[in-house]
């Protein structure tokens, strides 16, 4: 499978939402340097300065956060991981979660602020947002 590199600004936004080590590993994964599905040793081969347990723990945390999907094999088989989505999907999911937190915290005031911001957008930008929303 050929994977296109995500836009640089999207990648930077996504990485800013992760911890430094999580971001380092997800850069390898999202860029396609690790073939999916992968095991800890596949990522470790690209990060030889890290301990096996550090990579394993970080991949498991990313799975707990929903950034990775993990398939647990039989008792002696290595867990297999894959990205839960690409950079754009991660940003969309994170954005929805952040909006939910803002609305929970500020209620209608947050919605009014979003409406105000939407009113200032150009028709072209509004159309692009409608397409994004339908994904």
Overview of the molecule:
With 135 residues, the protein is mainly alpha-helical. It folds into two domains: 8-85, Winged helix-like DNA-binding domain superfamily/Winged helix DNA-binding domain (Arc Repressor Mutant, subunit A); 88-133. It is 60% helix and 6% strand. Strands 1-2 form a two-stranded antiparallel sheet. A hairpin with an 8-residue loop joins strand 1 (68-71) and strand 2. The two termini are 22 Å apart. The model is unreliable at 1-5 (pLDDT under 50).
Q: How many structural domains are formed by the residues?
A: 2
Please name the CATH architecture of the largest domain.
Orthogonal Bundle
- The CATH class of the largest domain, by name, is Mainly Alpha
What class, by secondary structure content? Answer: mainly alpha
Report strand order across the widest sheet: 1-2
Q: What is the mean predicted local confidence, pLDDT?
A: 89
Low-confidence stretches: 1-5
**Overall 3D geometry?**
elongated
Largest sheet properties:
2 strands, antiparallel
Beta percentage is: 5-15%
Question: What is CATH's topology name of the largest domain?
Answer: Arc Repressor Mutant, subunit A
Helix content: 55-70%
| Count of extended strands | 2
Q: What's the gyration radius in Å?
A: 18 Å
Count of helical regions: 7
**What gap, in angstroms, lies between the N and C termini?**
22 Å
The CATH homologous superfamily of the largest domain is termed Winged helix-like DNA-binding domain superfamily/Winged helix DNA-binding domain
Quick recap of the structure?
By secondary structure, the protein is mainly α. The protein has 7 helices and 2 strands; from the N terminus they run ααααββααα.
